[in-house]
Amino acid sequence: MQQAVDKQDRTAGTSNYAFDNVNEFAKGRYRDLSALYDFHTIRHLDRTGIQKGWHCLEVGGGGGSIASWMCERVGNEGRVLATDIEPRFLRSLSFDNLEVRQHDIRVDSLPASEFDLVHARLVLMHLPGREIALQRMIDALKPGGWIVLEEFDVFSIFPDSIVHAVGEQLKIGRAFYEVMTSRGVKMRYGRGLAQQLRERGLFNVSAEASMSIWHGDSPGTRMLKLSFEELADSILRSGLVSEAEFKADLKRLGQEDFHMLSPAMWTAWGQIPEFSPYANWLNVSATTEHLQALQEVRCTTQS
C-alpha cells in the first residue's frame, strides 16, 4: 500500500535536491541528458534481457525518455512504474502500461519483490539518505530481478597538467563542485556503485565507466551551462569566482573551439539471487542501522 506523505514532507524532500525539477532549466537539462546518455542507458538495460511482460521501476524518471522506452519494450503485457519527487514531465507521457507516481524513494513505500528491473540515473548522488534509497530499490526486486544504476564521478572534468598539458580550466567548475558538495551531493559517487551492490548480496555484479570529449555548444556543455546558471547566486556567493569570470566561463562553454573531458558516467548492475530469499543476507545489526538511518531521513524531511 502506498505510504501517505504530506505536502510539507514532499516540499522538504524537493528542497534537498540541488536543482529545481520543474523550471525551464530542468526541461533543458533533461533534454541534454537524454541526448548524451540514453543510448548508453538503453544498451545496459538491454543486457538484462528486458522483454515483453516485465514489470519495471524507473526511479527519478525526470523527463521520461527511459520510462517511455521501457513502456515500449515491455508492451501491453508488462508494466512500468515511473517515480519522481516532482513528476511534472512524467505526467505528460501517454502509455497504457505506465503508472506515474509522486514519490520520495527514501521515505515512501514500494511493493516488495515486485519488479524484474529497477533503474535510476543520476539520482543517488544527489540524495541525503542515499543508502536507504538504494536499499528500497533492491527490496523492490523480484528474485532474479536486475538493478541498473548510473552515477557520475566528476574527477575528469578538472584538467591534469601531467596527463593533458593543454586542458582548459574553467574557474566556474571548481566553484560549482564546492557548491554541490556543500549541498550534500556526492560528486564522485559513481565509482563505488558496484561495491555497494556486492555489499548488499547481489550477484552478477559488474560496472563500467564511459567518458567523452564535450565541445562548446554541445549537449554536454549546454547542460553544464544550464546547471551553472541555475546555481549562479550560490556560485558567486562562494567567493571562488568573480561575476566577470562567471560570465566569461559561460561564454566559453558556447564557443566552438572549446573542449573538455566529460564526467565519468559509471554504470553498475547486479541481480537478486533467484532461489535464495534476499532478506537472509541481512543481519540484525545491518537492519538496525538501516532503520536508524531511515528515522534520520524522516526527521530531515519533516523539519
Structure description:
The chain has helices at residues 7-15, 24-46, 65-74, 130-139, 171-182, 193-199, 219-230, 232-237, 243-253, 284-302, and strands at 55-59, 79-84, 98-102, 115-121, 141-153, 203-210, 213-215, 259-261, 264-271. With 303 residues, the protein is of the alpha/beta class. The protein has one domain (7-154, 185-213, 265-302): Vaccinia Virus protein VP39 (Rossmann fold), CATH 3.40.50.150. Strands 3-2-1-4-5-9-6 form a seven-stranded mixed β-sheet, with helices on both faces. Helix 1 packs across helix 10 and helix 2 (24-46) crosses helix 7. The longest helix is centred in the N-terminal third of the chain and has 23 residues, at 24-46. It starts with 6 loop residues before the first helix and ends with a helix.
